[in-house]
Amino acid sequence: MEKVFASIITIGDELLIGQVVDTNSAWMAQELNKIGITVKHRVAVGDVWEDIWQALDEESKQASIILITGGLGPTADDITKPLLCNYFGGKMIVHQPTLDHVTHIFENILKRPMIERNAKQAEVPDVCTVLMNERGTAPGMLFKKEGKIFVSLPGVPHEMKWIMSNHVLPLIPQIFTTGFIEHRTLLTAGIGESFLAEMIIKEETALPAHIKLAYLPNYGMVRLRLTAFGEDKNKLETELNHHFDQLKKAVAVYLVIDEDIPLELAVGKLLKEKGCTVATAESCTGGYIAHLLTSHAGSSAYFTGSVISYDNAIKERVLHVSKQTLETVGAVSESTVQQMAKSVLSIMQTDYAIAVSGIMGPDGGTAEKPVGMVWVGIADKNRVITKQFNFRFDRRRNIELTANNALNLLRSFIVDNA
């Protein structure tokens, strides 16, 4: 069975200048993967007629499913609809159900008059199948040409997702015969990508042609993902699970979790399983570790709070770091994070505590304490461990690296004490 490929074309100058980040493509690719569709290309083009036209020509040579987002609004820069009408040789007509829907939104929900510009949202090419948009005014449109489908969707994420979920994704399996795509992902820490590759040469070499291994390094961690494609779902899963088990054994000493979830969620699951809680005392990260932990539903089961002691006066008054420590060895020191961790553990009455203090840059570094130097402390009621890190990147990445390494140090602390 051959793979069915899709291409995603995102339209809008705002995407090209970085004013808006494209989250649509990532979501669409994930949902297509679930039904056995492989995304071959993701292309971003501006609001330029010739560029959009060329993208349609090029991507239709590569894929059987071409998904287009953006350019369906009521303003002059939204040119997708007239372009598609021209591209597929149609003429514009009023789609009455859409007009009724738009009228209802303005008269009954927004409580304001509908102008002609809004009414034009109901105009569509007569050569398309209209995909009703219950979440907005711009309908989706489906075109067929030479055995391929082209779907134009609004760029607004919640509108696009509704049309994809209710119209497009259920339709694709009716048109195309697809196989199954399965993934298995694990997360490692404490080893670089190249060293990891050397460690698993045997396991990687043993993979059959239809199972691929990908390395995904990020902020001191490396994810390993196995992706398999086949016709028999049960057989595919059995085979994939076997190779995944071998991979896990090979990297066991560096394995964080065998799920495709972020580190902070892995730490949260570990805490929840043990019925334990954690608090943070953060200086250089400004609450970023707390932010990561609380970004996931259910985090109240294991996270209690944080003291953001960015100023030394707060370290001294709230976290009871001694004035002598701050004056002699300074805020960025082992002694400071030890005291911060013990204090926040007592204040928050938690099982574990994380404390961090460092110099994120671009200024503030010295010869003795350069930019990127960080101390991390992890505490429970019996002991405190500390570790010094020296990062070499910009401020944002240094903060992210500090948070990830602090969370992983907590994870190791918990596992080692189990």
Quick overview of this protein structure:
With 418 residues, this protein is an alpha/beta fold.
SSE arrangement:
Layout: E1 4-11, H1 13-16, H2 24-34, E2 37-45, H3 49-62, E3 65-69, H4 80-87, E4 92-94, H5 96-109, H6 116-119, E5 123-125, E6 129-131, E7 140-145, E8 148-153, H7 157-175, E9 180-189, H8 193-199, H9 201-205, E10 211-218, E11 221-230, H10 233-250, E12 255-257, H11 263-274, E13 278-282, H12 288-293, E14 303-308, H13 312-317, H14 323-328, H15 334-348, E15 352-358, E16 373-379, E17 384-390, H16 395-416
Parallel strand pairs: 1-2, 1-3, 3-8, 13-14, 13-15
Antiparallel strand pairs: 4-5, 6-7, 7-8, 9-11, 9-12, 10-11, 15-16, 16-17
Helix pairs in contact: 2-7, 11-16
Can you tell me about this structure?
With 418 residues, the protein is an alpha/beta fold. It folds into 3 domains: 4-175, MoaB/Mog-like domain (Molybdenum Cofactor Biosythetic Enzyme, Chain A); 180-257, Alpha-Beta Plaits, CATH 3.30.70.2860; 263-416, Maf protein, CATH 3.90.950.20. The chain contains 16 helices and 17 strands. It has helices at 13-16, 24-34, 49-62, 80-87, 96-109, 116-119, 157-175, 193-199, 201-205, 233-250, 263-274, 288-293, 312-317, 323-328, 334-348, 395-416, and strands at 4-11, 37-45, 65-69, 92-94, 123-125, 129-131, 140-145, 148-153, 180-189, 211-218, 221-230, 255-257, 278-282, 303-308, 352-358, 373-379, 384-390. A 6-stranded mixed β-sheet has the order 2-1-3-8-7-6, sandwiched between helices. The longest helix has 22 residues, at 395-416. The two termini are 48 Å apart.
